[in-house]
Amino acid sequence: MFSKSLLKTVTGAALGAAVLLPMAQANAADYKIDSEGQHAFIEFKISHLGYSYVLGSFEDFTGTFSYDADAPEEASANVEIDVNSLDSHHAERDKHILSDDFLDASQYPTATFESTGFESTGDGEGELTGDLTLHGQTQSITIDVEHIGGGDDPWGDYRDGFEGETTLTLSDFGIDTSKLGPMASTVDMYLVVEGIRQ
Amino acid sequence: MWRNSVHGWGLPSILLHWLSAVLVVSLFVLGWWMTGLGYYDRWYQLAPWWHKSLGLALLGLTLLRLAWRLSQPTPEAHGVSWERMLAHAGHGLLYVLLLTVMISGYLISTAEGQGISVFGAFEVPALLSGLPRQATLAGEVHWYAAWALIVLAVGHTLAAIKHHILDRRDTLRRMWWPGGSRRQ
Predict the structure, then answer these.
(1) Which residues of A171-187 are buried (b: 16+ CB within 10 A; e: fewer)?
(2) How confident is the model at residue B171 (pLDDT cuts 50, 70, 90)?
(3) What is the pTM of this model?
């Protein structure tokens, strides 16, 4: 089994595509995130008035990761997210979030995450750091990741799945949420990524 | 009194015209104002509710108006021939813009399949949803078409005043009193 590591990413926006350092090591395997089968999720949660939360997700993204259970520190991930695929289950709200009041998706239609390092904390868990580009601004973020499981699937492939969590401070990306109240200054991201070994 | 003739407008056409005029201006001002409201404003939820309800009411009225207009004679246009051609094109464009503004507005709110409540009385269902970036693109069409409609409506008003005052026709009077007036 794979002991740790994962990859994935996040952002209110980004997961990405890519390839990862495939030849870094002998045992490293490359995975493609199963976007087609919708076995990957980028979800967000942000405070509403301090009384409750608004939940939503980015529906369209692609990405790849590389992972070797024997050398988790070599793990990497790249994800590319279609910002316009944001869905908070309310058309007018989505339009507002995507407008230049917030994400400005016309100007910045794509968010990306490119990992820069992985630190295993044991037991299949670790911290994936990487550059998240959102709203045209790039910041280093750290995602707490955990290996959920992996193995042969019923259809002839091999899969590994990870979940990840991180909290983004929106002002770091030049997104001003002050009009929504101070409790809306951060957004929690929750990611589930299932990759098919290539 | 009721039906249009080559000399003047019937009462239904006159009422529909002025009701539309009042609603168009009200909706424009309301839309302008409400999109600038802060999240914590008292009217943040209520203003769009009125805007959508009134907009859909206007859409219903406009469909009725078009059906009535097409089934009735049209009073003769005023002005010289190029003015008549321009007036004809302008009136056609007014209808096109009216429908464009209202349909694009409808497509914003229904972009993800939710219907629109009309005064809380009933809900107009979503007929077209899930298009790529639907709410955003419909919003842009709504904005520009609304501006175009207001600009054209101002031109429409100035042209009517010109016919009435400079050409000394009964243009304004016949859009007020059913059946046309004696002033020719």
Answers:
(1) ebbebebeebeeebbbb
(2) confident
(3) 0.84
A28: Cβ contacts below 8 Å, ≥ 6 apart = A21, A22, A66, A67, A68, A71, A74
A contacts of B130 (beta carbons < 8 Å):
none
Q: Predicted confidence band at B71 (pLDDT cuts at 50, 70, 90)?
A: very high
Q: Is B71 exposed, middle or buried (0-12, 13-18, 19+ CB in 10 A)?
A: exposed
β-bridge pairing A158-169 and A137-152? antiparallel
DSSP B52-77: HHHHHHHHHHHHHHHHHHHTS--PPP
Q: Closest partner residue to B109 among A89, A92, A179, by Cβ?
A: A92
**Are the CB atoms for A58 and A79 separated by under 8 Å?**
no
Whether A98 and B136 have beta carbons less than 8 Å apart is answered as yes
CATH code given to domain A22-197:
2.40.128.110
* Closest Cα in chain A, distance from residue B92 (Å): 31
Q: Do A91 and B111 touch (CB under 8 A)?
A: yes
- Establish if A60 touches chain B: CB-CB under 8 angstroms: no
- Please state the rounded mean pLDDT for residues B14-18: 96
Residue B146 has pLDDT above 60, yes or no: yes
Question: What is the mean pLDDT of the segment spanning A146-159?
Answer: 95
pLDDT for B87 = 93
The full set of domain ranges for chain B reads 11-174
- Rounded to the nearest 5°, which phi and psi values hold at B78? -100, 160
Look at residue B180 in the predicted model and tell me its pLDDT: 54
CATH number of B11-174: 1.20.950
Measured between beta carbons, the chain B residues lying within 8 angstroms of A87 are 112
pLDDT at A4 over 90: no
- Residue B175 DSSP SS3: coil
Selection from A5-9, B3-7, B177-181 with the highest mean pLDDT: B3-7
Taking alpha carbons only, the member of A101, A109, A107, A104 closest to residue A84 is A109
